[in-house]
Design brief:
The protein has 237 residues and is α/β, with parallel strands linked by helices. It has a single domain, classed as Rossmann fold. The strands form 2 sheets. The protein has a 6-stranded parallel sheet with strand order 2-1-3-4-8-9, sandwiched between helices. A 3-stranded antiparallel sheet has the order 5-6-7. Strand 8, helix 8 and strand 9 form a beta-alpha-beta unit. Helix 1 crosses helix 10 and helix 2 crosses helix 3. The radius of gyration is 16 Å and the shape is globular. The N and C termini lie close together (7 Å). This is Alpha/beta hydrolase. Keywords: Hydrolase. GO terms for molecular function: hydrolase activity.
Length: 237
């Protein structure tokens, strides 16, 4: 099998730049890497967009999803040319399960008390709700261990997640038919690490690596994240 294209999927409260340190390492190692935007409007819509994006790539694809991006790749990963999944501090949902349901089973997180809710207009003219992290809490909750000046920029440029996405169940589950690997951020204050461990164990991932890192592990430990991705490719043969 030719070396797959690596597609890196960002999560909530972030954008494609959240993958920048890992992208640089993978490019320097000669891999073909794509980092598409995720609009964070709905799980079904975001997954449909990523699935279509992946299907336009000629050849096999390895999907890596961070945080909410893990939920997105769970659904989008059923694309025929996806050969594997890597969950990075991510949600490995079961079919019909929502982010809120999985997170609700392990409620001990610092995130809930530091969220901001703001209205936005849906295409039909009704109000939706955007959810973001308080700017002053963002470095400690989302990016502890990251350079403070970088964390400040990320806090001010975060992409909100629509509240709709929290309650939407996964309509497909790629890990049932595709090999998958996972990273647990054991110092995560955004997602309870037990959410990650539970989801990965249930999915029967081939390998799970624990890193003493914050939620934004791609910035604090990019070499370790890149290594998990490249090791997954090696494991695929």
């Amino acid at each position: 099998m030719p070396s797959p294209t690596i597609v890196l999927v960002h999560g909530a409260f972030a954008d494609s730049a959240s993958w920048a340190p890992v992208t640089r390492l993978l490019l320097d190692s000669g891999y073909d890497v794509r980092v598409p935007p995720v609009f964070n409007r709905s799980l079904s819509g975001d997954a449909a967009y990523i699935k279509r994006f992946v299907e336009q790539i000629d050849g096999p694809v390895l999907l890596a999803g961070h945080s909410y991006g893990g939920a997105v790749i769970t659904v989008a990963g059923v694309a025929e040319n996806v050969v594997g999944l890597v969950y990075v501090s991510g949600y490995a949902l079961a079919e019909g399960e929502s982010l809120g349901q999985l997170q609700g089973g392990f409620p001990d997180s610092d995130l809930a008390a530091n969220l901001v809710y703001e209205p936005y207009t849906l295409p039909d003219g009704t109000d939706g709700t955007d959810v973001s992290v308080k700017i002053d809490a963002f470095p400690a909750i989302f990016a502890a261990g990251v350079d403070p000046r970088t964390a400040e920029v990320l806090a001010h440029s975060q992409r909100p997640l629509s509240a709709i996405a929290f309650g939407e169940g996964a309509t497909a589950v790629a890990w049932e038919t595709k090999p998958a690997w996972g990273i647990v951020s054991s110092a995560d204050h955004t997602i309870n690490p037990e959410v990650e461990r539970f989801g990965y164990k249930r999915a029967g991932l081939r390998g799970v690596v624990e890193i003493d890192a914050p939620h934004l592990v791609m910035h604090s430990h990019p070499a370790e994240v890149a290594a998990v991705i490249t090791d997954a490719i090696a494991d695929l043969g």
